[in-house]
Design goal:
This protein is α/β, with parallel strands linked by helices. It has two domains: about 50 residues; about 200 residues. It is about 15% helix and about 45% strand. The chain has a ten-stranded mixed beta sheet with strand order 5-6-2-8-10-12-18-14-17-16, with no helix packed on it. The longest helix is centred in the N-terminal third of the chain and has 22 residues. The relative contact order is 0.13.
């Protein structure tokens, strides 16, 4: 990948220069400088990645075929990263995404259910993560899905408006999560977070029930759409009869939740 080539190319050039200086007796021991320079290079690369987001290189993608599956269960396990998940995978594909060093993708067809697992390292490390620093995934709209996301300190942008997701589970650390829930059908969102910030959007025409327990979560809920019924419980007036509805259970630490 282009970013990795730049980083490791720079490392080789720098240590080539140091070795040349040692041969010329300008410096005495190149290895004295090894770890300080490595730390400086990695730190500089991490800072540069905040401001430099090049376009992902062509060809750095992967896909998983839907095969004969009638449903798909996704499990994403990420380190610290920027992550985008959307519907709209190509016809016949269960998953399409950015490919990178440091990721493992597995899929198994169990009966008529396809189980997909994606495990990655933190994209802040120079030699791990996709070009551009953003993990991008497209999941299928063709069959019902379950979605399970586990991550450390990450930033999520998840849009499931056009996805038939019956169950969504988020287990995150000190993260920021922007999530649009499914617009059609019945779904259940289970949030287990640390000091995280959740911005949840319920599509127009979709009813919702929101409950919060434990922690010191700061809740902001659109009470015109979801009136408060009890401590920590908000619900659309037509929730029980609505064909399109979502149930949201929140267990979070010292974070914030915004539902609109």
């Amino acid at each position: 990948m282009r970013r990795d080539n730049l980083f490791w190319g720079g490392v080789l050039i720098l240590f080539g220069v140091l070795y040349l200086l040692q041969v010329q007796h300008v410096i005495t021991n190149v290895f004295i400088y090894f770890w300080p320079l490595i730390l400086i290079l990695i730190g500089s690369w991490m800072v540069a990645n905040v401001f430099w987001r090049p376009t992902p290189a062509v060809g750095e993608t992967f896909s998983i075929a839907l095969r004969e599956a009638k449903s798909v269960s996704y499990r994403f396990n990420h380190g610290a990263a920027q992550i985008q998940i959307r519907g709209g995978a190509s016809a016949g594909k269960a998953l399409e995404g950015a490919s990178a060093v440091g990721m493992n993708v597995h899929s198994d067809l169990v009966g008529d259910r396809l189980e997909v697992r994606v495990e990655t390292g933190p994209s802040m490390i120079p030699f791990i993560g996709p070009s551009g620093g953003l993990w991008q995934y497209q999941i299928t709209n063709e069959v019902p899905i379950n979605l399970n996301i586990e991550a450390g300190a990450s930033t999520f942008d998840v849009d499931l408006a056009d996805v038939s997701a019956s169950r969504i589970v988020l287990k995150v650390g000190a993260s920021t999560v922007n999530l649009t829930l499914p617009a059609h059908g019945v779904s259940h969102l289970d949030i287990d977070g640390g000091a995280a910030s959740f911005n949840l959007r319920v599509p127009d025409g979709t009813a919702a029930r929101i409950s919060s327990v434990d922690g010191f979560t700061a809740m902001t809920v659109d009470t015109e759409r979801f009136p408060r019924l009890d401590s920590g419980l908000y619900q659309s007036p037509n929730f029980d009869s609505a064909p399109d509805r979502t149930e949201i259970d929140i267990r979070a630490g010292m974070g914030s939740v915004n539902v609109k």
